Amino acid sequence: MCPKVSSEYKTEIKERIIQSAIECFSKYGLDKTTMEGVAQKADLSKGTLYLYFKSKEELFYVICDNNLKVLKERLAQILATTKTKEDLVSNAEQFYENFHRTEKRENEKIFCEIIAESARNPKLQKMLYAQRLKTFNVVREYLDHQMEKGFFRKDTDTKAIASGFVALYDGLIASEFLGISASYSINSWRSTVRAIMAGIS
Amino acid sequence: MCPKVSSEYKTEIKERIIQSAIECFSKYGLDKTTMEGVAQKADLSKGTLYLYFKSKEELFYVICDNNLKVLKERLAQILATTKTKEDLVSNAEQFYENFHRTEKRENEKIFCEIIAESARNPKLQKMLYAQRLKTFNVVREYLDHQMEKGFFRKDTDTKAIASGFVALYDGLIASEFLGISASYSINSWRSTVRAIMAGIS
Amino acid sequence: MCPKVSSEYKTEIKERIIQSAIECFSKYGLDKTTMEGVAQKADLSKGTLYLYFKSKEELFYVICDNNLKVLKERLAQILATTKTKEDLVSNAEQFYENFHRTEKRENEKIFCEIIAESARNPKLQKMLYAQRLKTFNVVREYLDHQMEKGFFRKDTDTKAIASGFVALYDGLIASEFLGISASYSINSWRSTVRAIMAGIS
Amino acid sequence: MCPKVSSEYKTEIKERIIQSAIECFSKYGLDKTTMEGVAQKADLSKGTLYLYFKSKEELFYVICDNNLKVLKERLAQILATTKTKEDLVSNAEQFYENFHRTEKRENEKIFCEIIAESARNPKLQKMLYAQRLKTFNVVREYLDHQMEKGFFRKDTDTKAIASGFVALYDGLIASEFLGISASYSINSWRSTVRAIMAGIS
DNA sequence: CATGAATGAGACTTCATTCAT
DNA sequence: CATGAATGAAGTCTCATTCAT
Predict the structure, then answer these.
(1) Which residue ranges in chain B fall short of pLDDT 50?
(2) How does DSSP classify residue C44?
(3) Domains (range + CATH), chain B
(4) Would you say B192 and A169 are in contact if contact means Cβ atoms under 8 Å apart?
(5) pLDDT tens-digit profile of C150-162?
(6) CB contacts, 8 Å: C160 with chain D
(7) Chain C: partners with 3+ C-beta pairs within 8 Å
């Protein structure tokens, strides 16, 4: 039906380029990343990059997309199991460190780059907007689920709280980029989340 | 006694350059902003820029510094008056919209740029780190003050909650950059803050 | 075994750049030579120059180095054969014109540029210093050799005389740059050299 | 008859500019010297320079001219007294160090700059050419005078030897710029000059 | 398919010169 | 006369992209 082998090979090369590009973009930012640099880290030639991606911009978009999807998946995964209320609280409190730990450092750094870029790139912003709504929904559904179990008051605005959680997470990640220690952020997350949970119980 | 006129004049030009640069940096980002562009918007020649700032980098730093100081001042100002617990809660809930509204759009956009840049610029990171700690402290002192009034439980970790508030704020701002509506963010802030306040009361 | 073709090709381009640069540097001097100019004369683009040389400075250094080596080699070559004392005297007297004639005009002009530049460039000065000592030595060894043959008095300070010869040569070249005619310089060389040889015989 | 005071004042300013320019040109070369730099060292403003000299180039010419005249005068002075043949030889042998010592370092460095520049500046070359001939003549007349006293053979080509001396001097100065030690150069001068004198006696 | 040499647009920065005060 | 702020031409260097091999 289709040239499998060749296709697989191409996919592998593509993946190699993407990984290299992620590293570069996170380390140097969109503008200061050079195609030469990406090529070298991927052990390819500059020309080859253009066989797989039309331009530096496109490469960046693909990565953004990739990145966002992965984030959402991982989030859904981590939120999957909660049985008792104790589970809920401890899960929530530990979420930051859990999610953070399993996350590759590069992915978070590049996220920062992505947001900055999106502020002036409508196409990118659209993409991010869609993903952000999805992220909100994943969290919201989780909260709704817990509410149904009776862990939260019925009048809780889960939509608002969900985006609050996401924002809190992002804000703490940003803090870490500024040099705030991880333990500081973790503690902040725990206390704030505990307060929120207590407030809506 | 001192060259007032000349000095004032120079200050005015400097201010013009800074305003122009802020606009450019927010709109295009650090790298895609050109000195030519900044000069044009300031109605000056490229060369003149260099009479006032050593380089594009320095111009950026000065703006970062300016920006951070202004932010902190405005924060302190807004937190100044709280008498009753009702004040406290309504102040807190309305903080986001209040702070946000008075803030110039550019200043927030550039803040985004600043964080992204700081992730790979140690000098800038240091600056931001210092400022962030100060911001935390302003909020924390405010919380401590309210705690002493008996509005919060004595065992509240105000340090952690303070950075939680700041992170929440930043995260919501980021959301807005992605296209999330202001009303959505405001609502999210209100609900989350109300929950936190309830949780620590 | 090795990428001959590519290597040869690159060498050729490099050579083309160097030749162009020599012409430019001699004609306009280090500062007034532009990379654009060098590129055009070499029928290449500006960017290409930077594929072969890191900077204008480096290009200049490479040329200095090349130039000095070539000079020394040619000198050694020309001093190779002297059998009788008549040979010696006539060789010596004709040296200036011989060396001068075979030398490309540009190479001498650039030498002037090199010395001027070296007066304020320590790195360059070091390079020149080393080469100059080598040049002195080549001449000195030649003189020592003649002394052993008994053509000169045994108490001759060949080291001092050697550098005298070199200085005389350089000084006359300089004179020519100022517009003094070649025949004037040749005559001056002949008379002075004859006098020196007579003086140390 | 003329506005003396004002004139004197102007002359003083002019002199200050020239001195400053000499220092700058010797230290940095023609191109790398900035009018700003010259102005600062002269404790004047950039604009003032242009009240006294039409352009950077003109300033350089004036200095070249000054410099050459001074050189010739000092040479004539130093050659003024020679009575016995012993005087002659010892004067000649010590000439290099004498002339060198009384010479300001800057003046020699700038001489280097002047020659390099003249290689591509016809107007300057003309100036230098004229001066060089005058220098040759001063030395030649001196030699002729000594010849008449019977210190040299009658068939000596004093014209050629004179330019030989000058060239030797210049060449040794150039050597010093390359880092060759003064004592080395002095010794070289002595030996070579002694040889020449012996050769033509 | 892969390469990497070549291109050239475009960015930052400097500085001689002018001119209003 | 003196100043120094302003200008803008010009230079160095980088890098995304193309294309012949």
Answers:
(1) 1-4
(2) S
(3) 1-53 (1.10.10.60), 63-200 (1.10.357.10)
(4) no
(5) 999 999 999 999 9
(6) 187-188, 190-192
(7) D
